[in-house]
Amino acid sequence: MSFVFSADGHIVEPADLFTANLPKSLAFHAIRSEVRDDFRCTVSGDKIIHRMRMRPNMADMEATATRKLAPGEQPARKALGHNNIEGRLTDMRAEGIDAEIVFPSLALWTYHIEDPEAELATCQIYNDWHDAFFRAHTDVFVRCGVLPVRDLGNTALELKRLASLGFTTAMLPVVMPAGVPTYNNEVWDPVFALAAELGIVFVLHTGTGQEDVVVHRGAGGAVMNYTRQMNDGADAIMMLVAGGMLDRHRGARIACIESGASWLPAVAERMDEVYDAHYMMVRPKLDRMPSEIIRDQVACSFQYDRACIMARSVVGHQAFLWGSDYPHAEGTFPNTPFVLSKLFDGIEISEGEKADIVGLNAARLFGLKRAGLSVAGAVAA
Amino acid sequence: MSFVFSADGHIVEPADLFTANLPKSLAFHAIRSEVRDDFRCTVSGDKIIHRMRMRPNMADMEATATRKLAPGEQPARKALGHNNIEGRLTDMRAEGIDAEIVFPSLALWTYHIEDPEAELATCQIYNDWHDAFFRAHTDVFVRCGVLPVRDLGNTALELKRLASLGFTTAMLPVVMPAGVPTYNNEVWDPVFALAAELGIVFVLHTGTGQEDVVVHRGAGGAVMNYTRQMNDGADAIMMLVAGGMLDRHRGARIACIESGASWLPAVAERMDEVYDAHYMMVRPKLDRMPSEIIRDQVACSFQYDRACIMARSVVGHQAFLWGSDYPHAEGTFPNTPFVLSKLFDGIEISEGEKADIVGLNAARLFGLKRAGLSVAGAVAA
């Protein structure tokens, strides 16, 4: 197997990271996990951000063990590295994963903090902790910061600070919190210009900024709530492309993480279609067609998608990044070798493109520093 | 070229269809078009459903003439058959279209009527007019009724009446109007059971049921408002599949019209993924995987999409129906031969599958009665 880079992994921060480190005046806003009645709740201020009913078989809930396994699939097992480097490296070796980009757990909820000062402080605390945690291992782990959005001056400040620490990637919300201008608004221009200048890739992780990740509570809710997050990814990319932001800032790069990837060619095609069909009403006019902007500046991670590989010519195969979502239940752990062995079954694709999709596209986009690894230039399709 | 069936066409009803035919007690609700100030407004009751600014070059607004045409593309011209059979047949001959299913214009807005009695009467008036208009031409035009949804008893009544008139298809909204139970609610079971029994295909046309088709007014709005309708199609299919409705009623068939089609493999893949990953939380359990339910019971129309053709193996090529959207600006008129000549460029696909996608899939699904046309069974992929 070629070099495998997971474009989606999570680290669990110390439980008291924010309660212990926010200044007293902002401590009220600290993101924390609490048990209330039968629920494990994620809380900030007096807002319950997310809650999940605790069950006797909670450990199993995170597993896929209760469904019938496919021949060759392993039953779920406990991840060793959700909060430590050693266990993480052990699991990665077993999984055949050479490197990854790492996103938070608690700090995924940052965009629920409405106070700009508390939001900035939360980002800084997370980013400093994250940096210290991974700084000695940047040949394996790409660090990813979290950026505030309630005051775009703060966004620029923290972006510069991340660059000075050597970060190459930083998170923005995939769904814009209520009251914050959306990505088609020109107030974002200086932020995207700065990211392009600093060479920092913006990462939109699924679920971030969403008021409630549980949108549907009726029949089929569990399936719909995860599936529909692809729509959030699509909406964000529409804003950035149709609104002209990426066209104006050609050095800006976007990665949608864990929304799946097979919708990306569909969005590209349909934007091209209406850009022509409703041309007279289109504002702003773009220098490139929407699909070209996506080809040049957008990527998406996925765990199992195959349609995007089959239709990769629509936006180019460099737009597709495999990711494991370790250690989450909807990820590929502990079956990454099994998943990767089937990913390209029956699809006509070169070995070079396969290598790009399972690792080199992401290593290149996210700027992995690894001696001996040549990531220069995507292979021709 | 093989037999071409357009899965998306529109007829413009007489302007006074509803004002002249609704009983006096319900006339207030009549859907009608009015000029107010500089806007052409679609109105029902005291609600402006939709408005469009009138411009001196309004005729051009419907055209694509102002963008640069591709080599071989014809400039826009006025459609001859937006409200009459003769002109329609003339345009179809020029376009190389052999048959089509026909949807309304004014009656697309039916789901804005909140009064159940007025909604039912509107559907009946449209359906009777539509039937009379096309009855003598069912070898070319598949009739499609409009069903009320504010009282599901009315839905069943009108469904039976359509069947008695020989209809094989009927519209339901793709976005459920506020206050009406969504498609994952069991109150819909008798309606889907009845449709399966009567052999009537449910058609969800894009934009129907939406509170306002203009969701975005900022930069990129024109591109986003049309592109994002693919999300509405995806949401409706998630409801019907994950909620178990289609699994319980295997004879029920659904066609999403003009939302594009390339998102369908993406939705199928992602529902399969989370169905397994969150299996313990999934309710209801399904007898078939989501992608299998889609393969068996769901189809989508598109004008230009190619990603769905490349990725057709995910749900099968029978799920994809080409449509022209005649006579709308975002449709393929007057360039259908040009569009169809390029549709399969560079895609490895059998002649049989091509024939199915450009015509036979839809003729089969919608039950076109045409002497000498064999539509039995999709070709093996």
TrEMBL record, chains A, B:
User: Pfam families in the record, alphabetically?
Assistant: Amidohydro_2
Q: Does the keyword Repeat apply?
A: no
Key words, A-Z: Lyase
Which interval of the chain is the signal sequence?
none
Q: What is the top-level taxon of the source organism?
A: Bacteria
Asked if the Swiss-Prot or TrEMBL record annotates the protein with the keyword Glycosyltransferase, the reply is: no
Q: What is this protein called?
A: Amidohydrolase family protein
Gene3D superfamilies for the chain: Metal-dependent hydrolases (3.20.20.140)
Q: Where is each Amidohydrolase-related domain found?
A: 82-368
